[in-house]
Amino acid sequence: MNNRKKWSTLRKKGTAAVLGMMLGVSSIAVSVQASLVDLNAVFQTAPSIVAEVPQGPEITSTTGVVMEAETGTVIYDKGADAARYPASITKLMTLLLAVENSTMDEVVTFTETGIRDVTPDSGNIGMQLGEQMTMQDCIYAMHIYSANEVAAQIAEHVGGTEQEFINMMNARALEIGCTNTFFTNASGLPDENMHTCAKDMALIVREGLKNETFRQVLSTVDYTIPATNLNPNPRELHTHQPLFAPESALYYQGCIGGKTGMTNDAGHTMVTVAERDGLTFIAVTMKAADLGISSADTISMLDYSYAWFQKAWFEQLAAAAAQPLEETPAPEVQEPVEEVGSADEEPLYQEEEAGETEEKTVVSSRLTELRPKLLIALAVMIVLTVILFAILVIKKKKRRKNRKKRK
Q1: How much of the chain, in percent, has pLDDT values that exceed 90?
Q2: Which of 89, 230, 248, 339 could be a cystine partner for 261, CB 3.0 to 4.6 Å?
Q3: In this predicted model, what pLDDT tens digit does every residue of 7-28 receive, in sequence order?
Q4: How many Cα neighbours within 13 Å face the side chain of 335?
C-alpha cells in the first residue's frame, strides 16, 4: 500500500511537470500575441448576421461588440477579436473568480501586496497594512470604486499568492472560451503584456451572469463599507458607470450594471449589461477617447440591438442549434420596433471634426507564422518531460534493488 502511494505521488509530479511545461509555452504564445496590440488600428463594422437587418451604427470607439447573453450570439461587431488593453474592466474577471472561490463572510487582512497600490496615481480606498474587511466589502470596493489595492489583495487571498490567482484568471478565461486574452494582474493596471478583446470581455461577463452573487454585485449602485479595525469611518461607494447611475443624464433604461476603465494606452473601456423585453445584451467598447464617447457608442449599439432583434429570434436560433445537423431556415426577423433613444435631444457632447481615414485591417500573419514553431516547442517540452519521468522511474527501481541488496 505504501508503494502504491509513492507511485501515485510520483505520477502526480510527472503530470504537474507536463502541465507546467505546457503553461510555459502558452505564456510565450500569448506574449507574442500581445505584441500584436496596435493602438492606432482602425476597424470596420461587420455586416449584420441577418440579411434583413441593416448593418449596425458607426461608433467612434476603436472596437466594440454586442452579445446576446442567453445564446452568446454576437449581433454587433467592430474589431471584436482585436487585441486591446483592458484597464479596469479586468476587475470583472477578478470579481468572477472571487465569487466562485470564496465566501462573502471571509475576513481579508491587508498585506504589503494590497497596500502597494495605495498611491496618488492609482484608484484606491486607502487601505492600511493589517486592516481587515470581509470579502463582501472587498468585492464591492473593487467593483464599485475600482480600488486597485483591493483587487490585488483579493488576488492574494483567493489564490494564496497573487501570481497563482493570475494563473487562475488565465485558466478560467480559457475555460470560458476566450481566445485572445492574457492577464498579468488582477486590477487592470498598465502592463504591455496584458490584453483582451471586446468579445472575450463579453464572454467573461456572460459567464458571470450565471452566478447569482456576481449579478448582485454588478447590479448594485450604492454600497457602504462599515468601520474597520483601523478605520473608524464608513466608506460610501457609488457607481462610476454613467449608463447605470440613476441621476446621470446618460442613464440607459434597462441597464443592470457594468464597469468602466481607463489608462493612457487603453483609452476608455466600458462594459454595460442591459435587460429589456426578456432580452439581455452585453455591450463592450474599448479604446475610446473619453467616457462620453464610450457612453454614446454603447447607447447606439444597444438601441440598434433592441430595435432589430427580439427574443423570439434567439429562441428560434437556440432551438435550431439543439436540433440534429440539417438545413434549417434562418429565424424570421421582425420589423424594427419603435426606436429607442433621444434623437431629438441636444447632443451630450460635441464630436471633433475628423478627416477621412483609410480603413485598416489588423494582420495577424506574424502569429500565424509562429504557431508551428510554438507547437514544435511544445512537443519538445513534452518529450523532455516524458524522458525526465522515465529517469525518475528508473531511479526508483534502482533504489528498490539497492534496498533489497542491503537486506
Answers
A1: 64
A2: 89
A3: 444 444 444 444 444 444 444 4
A4: 1
